[in-house]
Amino acid sequence: MIGEHLRRLAGLPAHGNRTLHIDQLFLGLLLAFFDPLLRSLRTIESGGDFGGRLDLPRLARSTTADALAVFDPVHLQPIIDDLRARVPHLARGDADLSGILRRIVAADGTYLTTLADVAWALHHTKTNGRRQGQVRANVQMDVATWTPQVLSISGDDGLSEPASFIKDLLSGVLYVVDRNFVNFDFLKALLAKDNDFVLRVHGKVPLMQVVSARSIGAADAEAGVVADEIVELTRPRAPKGLFRRVTIITRNRQGKLETIHLLTNLTSVEIAAAVIGVIYRQRWQIELFFKWLKTWARMDHLLSTSRNGITFQFYVAVIAVLMMYVQSGRRVSIYALVALGRMVRGECTIQEAMAVIARREHERDLNRARQARLRARKKMA
User: What is the pTM of this model?
Assistant: First the structure.
């Protein structure tokens, strides 16, 4: 499949008199993704032709930097679309979500550090007085499969985080977002595309009026639900109609009690209040994905200072993630990255790599089951 796309990319015109074509740039960066030692343009150059896989002796550092600035990453989108169509279906990981028929998409941004002299980046002064530049990767991710659906790169463009997502919103999905997305324009745009949402809000923001309160059942109370209300948003620019506010008391990661207010358009009595809380917990998957990208996919080190080049690198990382998922049938993990990296370097076959991934995942499943039993025993005690 990748071979077909490489032939398509090879047919695109080169820019000026450059000898580096987009297919070779993409293939080189993809191969480098699976090698933990190739973290910069200089070390990627040292990789030579990647064991004869490239049609040129090496990805020269200066030429690669120039190519990243001019090659349009939109040409990689068909690869992402093709791989996403091949991602195997996963059953709901949580039985409480069995009644939620729409795909759950978490939307959020993560900041990546770049050079302070990048003109279009966001800039701030650190506590040590040094200036730092950052760009924000805006990601919409399917929480069940860890597959990014839409991504973009923002800098000093004057757009808030919710505004950066409006132009790329999907249709017919259930968005789960955090408090930084309390924005009426965002909610209106989301609803206009036939989407549902679960949004964490502050206790008193946005302003709302309680229309009616629902009784709390035993199962909801056990899940920490203390209020289930039908509300109207009272600000002039707020979306019209009835919404639902679910208030849950839970323990945070530090073990302290915390009150969470969730606003949603899922007002049906068939969807229990506790399920709204379960949906919101799915948002944590995008935080894990961001950590994975920065820790293992090495997106903490940007290869380019241009918006175009950073987007190109992000697309390559997403393609690599999707390839690992399609090959292994499981969500990406460090085991898959290591095993498929060995395969790329010619150290093992695809069958051997898959066997390693299956064995490691089985061991992890057994460990999770042990931990679950321990938590259950402690709870009973």
Answer: 0.81
